[in-house]
From TrEMBL:
It holds the Pfam family Biotin_lipoyl. Keywords: Biotin, Fatty acid biosynthesis, Fatty acid metabolism, Lipid biosynthesis, Lipid metabolism. Residues 83-159 form the Lipoyl-binding domain. The lineage of its organism: Bacteria, Pseudomonadati, Pseudomonadota, Alphaproteobacteria, Rhodobacterales. This protein is a component of the acetyl coenzyme A carboxylase complex; first, biotin carboxylase catalyzes the carboxylation of the carrier protein and then the transcarboxylase transfers the carboxyl group to form malonyl-CoA. CDD domains: biotinyl_domain. The gene is accB. This is Biotin carboxyl carrier protein of acetyl-CoA carboxylase.
Length: 159
């Protein structure tokens, strides 16, 4: 593409929304603007598959005289369903700090104000700050610095 079209970003966001609303995994579209001007877009998301059942594990049982303190294990929860989840508004690469070697924007346990930058998502060579939607405490950071991120993927859990 030789010229920048303002509508391209809105178009890509609309494709990502179609992907999510229709539970699709991939969309590919080409737009021709002229002889030497085109936009080719592929929007995809990675679905998280349930882990395969593992082989049986041999467990040793304590002797009857020893107290057995076992708690039922909680089922794995989907971080995207957490009410404090902050999701990615776009596909891109996640950065936890403003530049390599700099302190991260937030760490687990930090108190954040509404609008405070939590992370950066780089998309199409543009750095997009991800603001906190509300005040709270960072409970979990679900992504690693420099990792690819999909549209709608949970990034941070606020408490």
């Amino acid at each position: 593409m030789t010229n920048t079209h303002d509508s391209d970003v809105a178009f890509i966001r609309a494709l990502a929304e179609l992907l999510r609303e229709n539970d699709l995994t991939e969309l590919e579209v080409s737009r021709e603007y002229g002889e030497d001007d085109a936009l080719n877009v592929r929007v995809a998301r990675q679905l998280v598959a349930a882990p395969a059942p593992s082989a049986p594990v041999q467990v040793s049982v304590p002797a009857p005289s020893a107290p057995a303190a076992t708690a039922p294990s909680a089922p794995q929860e989907d971080p995207a369903q957490d009410p404090g989840a902050v999701s990615s508004p776009m596909v891109g690469t996640i950065y936890l700090a403003s530049e390599p070697g700099a302190a991260p924007f937030v760490q687990v346990g930090d108190s954040v104000a509404e609008g405070q930058t939590l992370l950066i998502v780089e998309a199409m060579k543009t750095m997009n700050q991800i603001p906190s939607p509300r005040a709270g405490t960072v409970k979990r950071i679900l992504v690693e610095d420099g990792a690819p991120v999909e549209y709608g993927a949970p990034l941070v859990i606020l408490g």
